[in-house]
Amino acid sequence: MRVDADLREMRGVPEGQLADWVSRRFPDGTPPQWWLSIFESLEVSATPFRDVAPDRRSEDLNLAAEAILLAVKPGGVRPAIGAYWMLRIAALALRIDPPVSGLPQILTPDGSAEWALQQIPLTRERAIAESETRRDEYLNAGEGFYAPVGGEVTLAGEVAFSGLQDVELILSALAWVCSHVKDERIECEIRAWLEIQGDL
Fold this sequence. Notes:
Order of helices and strands: HHHHHHHHH
Structural class: mainly alpha
Helix content: 55-70%
Strand content: under 5%
Distance between the termini: 37 Å
Number of helices: 9
Low-confidence stretches: none
Largest sheet: none
């Protein structure tokens, strides 16, 4: 996949027209791997360790936020992946000094955290219950549960991701922005989730 060339083209797409560009580039649907490559490339481009013009850094961070939202909408990537990357990019923006101006609300600690919390697929009670079920399954698993050592592994159909895995992924990233969140309601919700993280 020509990610570098795609990224150069994406930078030239007028704001609000990225969805049209992506649908022309991938008329049969966008591969999730392509989205992840785009997120990673934009993260590397905007990192504070690179000597990048402030305008370019701001444009790339804005493009990253737009791409993540777009990737989640048509089902290109799971919402949990989108939440993880939004938090990752928001955390990156926090490390840039002087701060980047003109960032969208969703790339602030409060905005990214609130959006990520909306992507959590389970309640806290359900997550704990599913974690206990998973733990019981592992403890009581027979030999057929594990892949053979040195043997071939055959996956039957598409690999399914549980809601619990998505919860764990989002919680792993929420901690990056939690201490910078200003809205007390959002901070309380994050801390309620992080308090049960060790039980999952």
